[in-house]
Design goal:
oxidoreductase activity, acting on the CH-OH group of donors, NAD or NADP as acceptor, oxidoreductase, SDR_fam, Rossmann fold, NAD(P)-bd_dom_sf, NAD(P)-dependent dehydrogenase (Short-subunit alcohol dehydrogenase family)
């Protein structure tokens, strides 16, 4: 079993949603927390709650800003100690039909969902390697990163995070750093309203009716506290993939069967 007490965790998107669920699960185990989020009100609320359980520092951070990421990392480690648990969790759920897509939508989506993960990795992995004490990195993707869906912007970003994590796990193991990728199904968060709030003037959400339906679907999903415990269990098992439910199992099976069926059979060597 992993020794949690006294470790330091850095969680992006840690003020709310899945990030807060992970923070709560870690706090119960005595982990010291550095929470980064773009929402200062959410950070203040989370700090008040979690400071009753463990040491907490909060930082306003746009995960696309590499210089800010480095500065926040320095400050977090100076106050709490070396970060050995990294949760690249911040994300948005934008949507656009193909006919309305613009470069700015791609920049926003990939900037937060993919480059936010890259920036977290590039900020903290070299520090972990230099210390030679190992560590753990959990990247939040989505079930949409395992099965192609109709939301091109979101699916593209999440597939990239899954591929990054699967590849990273092999290389990071040489340094004693474990890697998992969280692929949640529906989780009861406010990700759609948060996406709209930071959408930078872009129309990156469904039309109003569809948005309400999607929000209701998400609210019926797994609680953030349950997800936090699932993440801990996945880390204890050193799992490559951490899932919150089995809702996409049949779709994954169909995808894999179709992928395997598309490959040609081996060509027998010609007999001379």
């Amino acid at each position: 079993m992993r020794e949690w007490k006294g470790a330091v965790a850095f969680i992006t998107g840690g003020g709310q949603g899945i990030g807060l669920g992970i923070a709560r699960a870690l706090a119960k185990r005595g982990v010291r927390l550095a929470l980064a989020d773009i929402d200062e009100a959410a950070l203040s609320s989370s700090r008040r709650e979690l400071a009753q359980v463990t040491d907490v520092e909060v930082f306003r951070l746009d995960v696309r800003d590499r210089q800010a990421f480095a500065s926040v990392a320095d400050e977090a480690e100076s106050k709490l100690g070396p970060v050995s648990l990294l949760f690249n969790n911040a994300g948005i759920a934008p949507y656009s039909s193909l006919s309305k897509m613009r470069y700015e939508m791609w920049d926003l989506t990939l900037g937060v969902n993919l480059m936010g993960v890259v920036n977290g990795l590039q900020t903290f992995a070299p520090r972990m390697i230099e210390r030679r004490e190992g560590g753990y990195i959990v990247n939040t993707a989505s079930g949409a990163g395992l099965v192609g869906g109709p939301n091109v912007l979101y699916t593209t970003s999440k597939y990239a995070v899954v591929g990054l994590s699967e590849s990273l796990k092999r290389d990071a193991a040489k340094y004693g750093i474990e890697v998992s990728v969280l692929c949640p199904g529906p989780v009861a968060t406010d990700i759609l309203s948060n996406t709209e709030r930071i959408g930078e003037g872009l129309s990156v959400v469904h039309r109003e009716g569809a948005n309400r339906d999607t929000e209701a679907f998400l609210r019926s999903g797994t609680s953030i506290d349950a997800v936090g415990e699932m993440v801990i269990a996945g880390m204890e098992a050193k799992a490559m993939w951490i899932h919150t439910d089995g809702s996409i199992k049949d779709y994954v099976r169909m995808r894999m069967e179709a992928l395997l069926a598309s490959m040609p059979d081996p060509v027998a060597d010609e007999v001379s």
